[in-house]
Write a structure and sequence with these properties.
Elements (H helix, E strand, L loop, with lengths): L3 H42 L5 E3 L11 E3 L2 H6 L4 H27 L4 H13 L3 H11 L2 H18 L5 H24 L2 H33 L5 H57 L2
Antiparallel strand pairs: 1-2
Helix pairs in contact: 1-3, 3-8, 3-9, 4-5, 4-9, 5-6, 6-7, 6-9, 7-9, 8-9
Length: about 280
């Protein structure tokens, strides 16, 4: 018991430091992406050289007319476009961040092959060889297995506990190590799941605003005089719809890919814990 508290405190401190360091992207990325979305919309899509009738005094939201290229036409989607561009950039940023994290957590080689190697070493009572395999794996499964093997080795030398108590101690160690690994894998996935729905809702808002603008222009001017304003309003509606659908589709696809990868890692972690407890129970009765 004298060694348990310091170990638990060290793990808690390590987890806290990791969480604090990893949260920076959660706070900064949405703000930076929305600002970047506005910059793209205002200064690239809305570059005055891309319009036949630029509004040089427009300030925050210039009323340019007569877009020349397809990208300039996207500018007519209105002020909702920067939000959708920012949401799409967030999907890209968090997809890259999750990919790098999960790729690191996957480790090297096959998890099934890794577990078989550990089982072989444990069957030969070579705990140090099993720990060496964990160092080679370099992933979440290897980290959890290594924590359990250290407790496994400690329990072999402990003569004061029964076999059931030793197995329970190993299982507890595995559960504690798992509790440190899984939050790291799942963190920031909430952004992708949220953007799956939020992208569509923002697009719907832009679509509605565009249609309101279209019919308001039609009602005020009427006849052929409203044709230009009607076209701009419909363009606003359709561009927002397209951007929102694209954002939600990519977010949903990446979310499903990452959750599948995490499920695979979680299965490997569960299998590693079962391997340790069953091995100890059968060999050290």
């Amino acid at each position: 018991m004298a060694e348990t508290k310091p170990n638990a405190a060290a793990k808690a401190t390590q987890a806290g430091q990791s969480k604090g360091g990893g949260n920076a992207i959660s706070y900064l990325a949405p703000i930076i992406c929305i600002i970047a979305g506005y910059v793209i919309w205002r200064f690239i899509l809305g570059d005055s050289s891309g319009f036949t009738k630029p509004d040089l005094e427009g300030g925050f939201w210039p009323s340019h007319k007569g877009p020349i290229g397809a990208w300039n036409r996207m500018y007519e989607g209105g002020i909702i476009v920067p939000l959708l561009l920012g949401a799409f950039l967030m999907v890209v940023v968090f997809s890259i961040e999750r990919y790098l994290t999960i790729r690191k957590a996957t480790g090297t080689g096959s998890n099934a092959e890794f577990v078989r190697k550990v089982q072989f070493h444990l069957a030969n009572k070579n705990v140090d060889g099993a720990i060496a395999e964990c160092d080679k794996q370099k992933g979440s499964v290897g980290n959890v297995m290594k924590a359990g093997l250290k407790k496994y080795k400690e329990m072999i030398a402990d003569g004061s506990l029964s076999t059931d108590q030793k197995v329970a101690a190993i299982q507890k160690e595995v559960e504690e190590a798992t509790a440190l690994e899984l939050p790291m894998l799942q963190k920031n996935l909430v952004f992708l799941s949220t953007l799956t729905s939020l992208g569509t809702l923002i697009a719907l808002l832009g679509t509605v605003l565009g249609m309101i603008r279209s019919f308001a222009s039609l009602g005020e001017e009427g006849g052929s005089g409203a044709a230009a304003e009607l076209a701009v309003g419909i363009s606003e509606a359709l561009y927002n719809t397209a951007l929102g659908i694209a954002t939600s589709s990519v977010a949903l696809m990446m979310y499903n890919i990452f959750t599948t990868k995490i499920d695979s890692i979680t299965y490997g972690i569960d299998e590693s814990g079962f391997t340790l407890t069953q091995s100890f129970a059968s060999q050290y009765k």
